[in-house]
Structures are given as structure tokens and as C-alpha cells.
């Protein structure tokens, strides 16, 4: 029997929501200060048709803030004209240089604006676990959120019983490679079968944690797979991602292809830079949380966060909200030559 629990960490500069599955992080939802309300999944707003590309069946919508959204032109949308005001709902957030996707609700009037905000972080978490007894906060939530964030940036993940899988993203697809490693067992075929079944569960959890969707290709280990049993296990593992999950047959090359709907912007994209490592803002928020931890442990101490200039600049707004609560005994100091990952907290 599986058990899911919910956590919210209220940190300077961001709120982090986590769903755990049997004690392991399964989903990470990030709401950062400065996020644009008009771009959030589930927001309802007035948009204006900025441009039409009828040959491609697309309308580009001005949402009032952030990049244009895309609306697919169908027989149900009717004949839109440039400059027209329409009411829409955001059904998929912007990602990797692509604008948000919108669903047409009807005609509207006036300038682009938000009519109803996206669901709150609490509402989003409860949407995943409706029968949750509580949403945990405080120190335990901070620890769980830190662990979820660290794991979401990893590439390689251990499998129960031995072996591992690696998750790597490309422009076209998400590649999941299963490795038998030193998994025990006298019979190699049985060991490979066990690794593949374990990998399906881990892959589903990790992809949800990272927030990744689109085309996924899982390279299973071994040969002569029990396709019906593996597909049944895959449907169960990826069931929480429905509606919209589509699976293909296991190919003669030992790969399983599936598509997972893209909805919210991936946590992995929010946290990382183009190289896949933590972004400057992620390092900055980590530094401010470290300042908060030290200041909370020592109510009279003065502390300074020392970091690369770009990290200090990114951390300044979050530090302002922290000092408003804990006082002006906290500060930042830029030090040229430091790597973004080398920030640390010292006594002032």
C-alpha cells in the first residue's frame, strides 16, 4: 500500500510544495517571488489576439505580461481576428523558449488582465492527494523540500535491489537508461527482469519529481522481455500522470516509448541553468535559506552571506524580505572570483 504526504516550505523568495510517495519525493512545486500570474497553469484571463498564422492553425495571444501564449485554431474557436479580446485559461505553462498554451473560453472585452488566479500551492498539493490528513510545514517541510530539490537535479538514481537508471533530457525527448550494474542474482535474465520492473516505478516517480513530460524513451536492460507484464507495470507506474499518458509497444530493440502530458513548467527547468546545474537564482535562494537557518539558531548573531556578485544580486530581494522579519543583522557580500556554487555564511 502506498502512502503520500504533503509538505509546504515557506522560504524567503519562494514557496516549495512537496508530495512524497512512501517517504521519497514524488512531486516538487515551486512558487517563486516574481512569478507572473498571467502565465500560471489554471489562470483565467482576458488576452488579446496579437497575430494569426492560419496556415499553421495558431493564434498568438498577448497575456499582458510575459511571452505570448499559443491557441490552436479549430472549428470550435471560430474565426478570430487580430486585436480581438478573448477569455482563455492557461492549460500548459511556458517552457524552454516555448510560450504557454491556452484554451479558449469565449469572447471578452478590455485590456489583457487576470480574471481568476491559478490554484494556490495548497490547492495544487491537495489536487494530488485529496484525502491527505494534513499539510506539514516548519522544519520538517524545509528538510523534505531541500531533499526533493537536490534529488530533482540529479541525473542517476539507484534502483531497489541494485542497478541504476539515468534520466537525461534532449530537445526531442527524455532518455531513461536502465543499468543492471552489480545487481545480484544467479540468473542474469531474472536479475534483468527484476531491474526493469523496479526501474519503471523509479522512472515514473523521478519524472514526476522533475516535472518532465513529452516523449519518453526507456531503454530496458536485457533481452526477451515479458512485454505484457512490463506494459501492465508501466501503466500502473505512470497512472498518476493521467489523463493523457500514451504508451507504445516494447520494441525489438528493448525500448519502451510513451508520452506524458506537459502541464506545469518543470521543476527541473526552474531550478537549473542550460547546463543542467543549479541556476544563479537557485544558488541565491539556497544562500538566503542558509542565512535564515543560522539567524534562527542564534537570535542575536550577525551573519553575512558571501557569494559571487551575480548570486548576491539575485539574492538581494529575498534577503530584504528576510531582514524585514529577522532584523538588519543579516547582509550579503560579493566576492569576485567565487563560483556561483561557492556561497557560504559567516559571522559578520
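^ Assign residues to that structure.
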Amino acid at each position: 500500500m502506498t502512502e503520500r504526504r504533503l509538505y509546504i516550505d515557506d522560504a524567503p523568495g519562494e514557496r516549495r510544495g512537496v508530495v512524497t510517495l512512501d517517504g521519497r519525493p514524488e512531486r516538487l512545486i515551486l512558487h517563486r517571488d516574481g512569478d507572473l500570474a498571467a502565465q500560471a497553469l489554471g489562470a483565467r484571463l482576458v488576452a488579446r489576439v496579437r497575430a494569426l498564422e492560419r496556415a499553421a492553425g495558431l493564434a498568438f495571444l498577448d497575456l499582458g505580461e510575459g511571452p505570448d501564449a499559443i491557441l490552436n485554431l479549430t472549428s470550435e474557436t471560430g474565426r478570430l481576428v487580430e486585436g480581438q479580446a478573448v477569455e482563455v485559461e492557461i492549460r500548459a505553462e511556458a517552457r524552454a523558449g516555448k510560450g504557454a498554451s491556452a484554451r479558449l473560453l469565449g469572447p471578452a472585452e478590455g485590456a489583457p488582465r487576470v480574471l481568476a488566479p491559478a490554484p494556490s500551492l495548497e490547492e495544487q498539493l491537495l489536487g494530488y492527494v485529496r484525502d491527505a490528513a494534513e499539510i506539514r510545514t516548519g522544519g520538517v517541510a524545509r528538510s523534505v523540500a531541500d531533499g526533493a530539490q537536490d534529488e530533482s537535479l540529479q541525473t542517476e538514481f539507484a534502483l531497489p535491489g541494485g542497478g541504476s537508471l539515468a534520466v537525461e533530457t534532449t530537445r526531442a525527448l527524455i532518455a531513461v537508461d536502465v543499468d543492471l550494474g552489480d545487481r545480484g542474482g544467479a540468473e542474469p535474465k531474472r536479475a534483468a527482469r527484476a531491474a526493469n520492473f523496479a526501474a519503471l516505478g523509479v522512472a515514473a516517480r523521478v519524472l514526476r519529481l522533475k516535472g518532465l513530460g513529452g516523449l519518453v524513451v526507456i531503454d530496458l536492460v536485457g533481452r526477451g522481455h515479458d512485454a505484457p507484464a512490463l506494459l501492465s507495470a508501466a501503466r500502473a507506474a505512470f497512472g498518476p500522470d493521467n489523463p493523457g499518458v500514451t504508451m507504445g509497444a516494447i520494441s525489438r530493440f528493448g525500448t519502451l516509448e510513451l508520452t506524458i502530458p506537459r502541464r506545469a513548467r518543470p521543476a527541473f527547468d526552474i531550478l537549473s541553468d542550460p547546463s543542467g546545474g543549479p541556476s544563479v537564482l537557485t544558488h541565491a535562494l539556497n544562500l538566503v535559506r542558509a542565512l535564515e537557518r543560522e539567524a534562527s539558531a542564534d537570535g542575536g548573531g550577525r551573519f553575512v552571506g558571501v557569494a559571487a556578485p551575480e548570486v548576491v544580486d539575485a539574492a538581494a530581494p529575498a534577503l530584504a524580505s528576510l531582514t524585514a522579519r529577522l532584523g538588519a543583522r543579516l547582509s550579503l557580500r560579493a566576492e569576485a572570483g567565487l563560483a556561483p556554487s561557492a556561497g557560504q555564511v559567516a559571522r559578520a
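The mean pLDDT is 94.
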